[in-house]
Amino acid sequence: ATYYNEPSRTFSEYLLIPNLTTKDCTPANVSLKTPLVKYKKGEKPAYSLNIPFSSAVMQSVSDDKMAAALARCGGISFIFGSQPIEEQANMIRKVKSYKAGFVVSRSNLTPDHTLQDILNLKEKYAHSTFAITHDGTANGKLLGIVASRDYRISRDARDKKISTFMTPFDSLVYGKTGITLSEANDLIWEHKLNVLPIVNEDQCLDYLVFRKDYDAHKEYPLELLDANKSYIVGAGINSKDYKERVPALVEAGVDVLVIDSSDGYTEWQRETIEYVKANFDVKIGAGNVVDREGFLYLVEAGADFVKVGIGGGSICITREQKGIGRGQASAVIEVAAAREQYFNETGIYVPICSDGGIVHDYHITLALSMGADFVMMGRYFARFDESPTRKLKVGNNFVKEFWGEGSNRARNWERYDTGGKSGLLFEEGVDSYVPYAGSLQENLDKTISKIKSTMCNCGSKSIEEMQRNARITLVSATSLVEGGAHDVILKESSLSGE
Ligand code: MZP
Fold this sequence. Notes:
The protein is of the alpha/beta class. The chain has helices at about 65-75, 85-95, 115-125, 160-165, 180-190, 240-250, 265-280, 290-300, 320, 330-345, 360-370, 380, 440-455, 465-470, 475-485, 490-495, and strands at about 15, 35, 40, 50, 55, 75-80, 130-135, 140-150, 235, 255-260, 285-290, 305-310, 350, 350-355, 375, 390-395, 395-405, 430-435, 470-475. The protein folds into two domains: about 10-95 and about 230-485, Aldolase class I (TIM Barrel, Alpha-Beta Barrel); about 100-230, no CATH class.
């Protein structure tokens, strides 16, 4: 046997050490944009994410509802593959039918707001949707900005609620009659636009803009742009029925596939990637691996990104059942080093995804600092309204159901198959509850604020800079105690986490 000299470590064993924070290094100036698929040096990846988040390929996490909600926030879901092919394809179709369109405003106002005011608002409502008015001239000068945290009102209640939504910003935008409120609402409803309606004094709606990637320095024509643009969506596949599943998913409009397996260092994955590359123009990620050899094998087979992690998932009992796996931090660090070397030698950058084992928000920042380009999470997303499972009251608390793909409930034997007889011979996952946490957007906003704030402490305005500049230290077991509240008597509100 070969023995590793270093113990296998996980995120909680590390901390970041601040670097110099320059004055321009503010959360408003931090970009979390990150590549999703491989690209050549000097070129751009075919797909990027605006936030480094993907939701797990799991029955209890990623369906069409989660996928649309996360795409709207700038991330991506991989819709679970442990379901009949046509049902998975229908979920893809549903996500692709949502329109990320926007309507441009022709307000004739000149409110006295500077670009900095607008950027401050943008920062405050990062990852919300933005409505931006224009002055009606060809260069579309920016006049104001409003943010909608969550435009989710019922058809019946909508007229009543609109005034509530506009309250914080009504001094910013009001204007000339555009279209009637009811016409605008029909438009918003029909196209599922996630926008804030701006009502003018005549109770008519001015035009709206919805554009998450709005660039204040760019010029946009005053018309309905790019309106049919749909959200990007991913799907999980396995290395068993891919010859039937992949054609159906591609036909449904999937953007990115990922081979979902607990152990991706296999000839079955190579064959699956080769089949997809030979027959379709669709991106495909592979995994999971935990070392340099596994990473290089999948990259040489043609993988567009590689997923890292075995046994660290919150519902995973693979390490107990089979004794395989590796601490998530050690796995990411080794694979990231292999990726750097591969990039230096070939000029091809292959993104890596740290999958599973994120317990605290700062673990995400650590994963990114250690070289991950994005993370995949199950437990994190399972807690939200948008996950596909039931919300229940257990004792005095609300919880959501959450079960592993290797549990008897999911019976996703293809994910664990090592050849031979089909079927789940023993469980590698559990069936559980997670505390209910509310809406995806609210929680994402908080998590993203923490990541951006930490990046500022570390003097980095992008994930790439963070990967280059981060200084990371191991912590001793004793100093871990120092990290939480200690040597004080906590008040009840702190104990209950309020
Ligand atoms: P977590 O974010 O809940 O800690 O981990 C989610 C990840 O656990 C998934 O993306 C997947 O890689 C893995 N997973 C899913 N089901 C099981 C299982 O039943 C599992 N063992 O390990």
